[in-house]
TrEMBL record:
Organism expressing this protein natively: Abrus precatorius (Indian licorice)
Gene assigned in the entry: LOC113858203
Protein name: NDR1/HIN1-like protein 13
Membrane listed as a keyword: yes
Keyword Transmembrane helix part of the UniProt annotation: yes
Membrane topology of the entry: Single-pass membrane protein
Domain of life: Eukaryota
Length: 265
């Protein structure tokens, strides 16, 4: 290592250590060495510095804050991955169940309608009526491996021009697979008041032997897949039915039913 001697007031170079005069710092190993200021050159890559304790704490806190968003991002990625995996598993399970059971919606139709209490020739033209409809509904469960439980809480309503004439409920029963069931339900109304225009329209419809009604059926059911009884769903059936007269011998001249399912009923 080469030593250089600089004037006393010269500033030290970067990366160099300044030594004090030998008579102030320590006893020189060479008594005959001249007194003064010495500069020792050290390569820059051999200079090591320790930060003060307060700087070390600040650096640690800065590093922690810098890594925090990264941790949050990792947690979010894990959550999204788990949700995606669950969705994929549910989709696979649903596909397997579909291939095994091949589910299809039951078919509903109105078999017959008997009408009572619709006296439109009363001397008091504006008198209230108490209609009664005896309706036979046909339910066709064409599934080979699926049964249907019809539970309490169902409703069946009969309307004419948005006026509810009577209502009732379905019986509680179990329909096995590959089964056709015709169930009767009695719909009753009391104190129903029709407007003059509705009465006139009904009389004219009877003369023409084409009296239109709308039936709305709502039934909570549970599906049975094999030995597993699933959650409750709601079956919704809307039927437009036209009869030729308002008597117990009424005959259906036209009918059209549509149905749907509320999976989370």
């Amino acid at each position: 290592m080469n030593d250089r001697v600089y004037p006393k007031d010269s500033p030290p170079l970067y990366g160099e250590f300044k030594t004090m005069p030998s008579h102030e710092a320590t006893v020189s190993s060479n008594p005959s060495a001249p007194t003064g200021t010495y500069v020792v050159q050290i390569p820059k890559n051999q200079v090591y510095r320790l930060p003060p304790p307060e700087n070390a704490r600040l650096y640690e806190e800065y590093t922690r804050r810098k890594n925090r968003p990264f941790r949050c991002c990792c947690c979010l990625c894990w959550f999204i991955s788990i949700v995606f995996a669950l969705v994929v598993l549910i989709g696979i399970a649903a596909g397997v169940l579909y291939l095994i059971f091949r589910p299809k919606a039951p078919d509903y139709a109105i078999e017959s309608v008997a009408v009572k209490g619709m006296n439109l020739t009363s001397p008091s033209f504006s008198a209230a009526i108490s209609p009664e409809f005896d309706v036979a509904v046909r339910a066709d469960n064409g599934n080979a491996k699926i049964g249907i439980y019809y539970e309490e809480g169902s409703s069946v309503e009969m309307f004419y021009n948005d006026v509810r004439l009577c209502d009732g409920a379905l019986p509680v029963f179990y329909q096995p697979s590959n089964n056709v069931t015709v169930f009767d339900t009695v719909l009753k109304g009391d104190g129903i008041e029709l407007t003059a225009s509705d009465r006139v329209a009904l009389v004219n419809a009877v003369i023409e032997q084409s009296v239109p009604f709308t039936l709305k059926l709502r039934a909570p059911v549970r599906i049975k897949l094999g030995i597993v009884k699933m959650w409750k769903i709601n079956v919704k059936v809307d039927c437009d039915v036209t009869v030729d007269q308002l008597t117990a011998r009424a005959r259906i001249v036209k009918k059209d039913c549509s149905y749907g399912v509320d999976l989370w009923g």
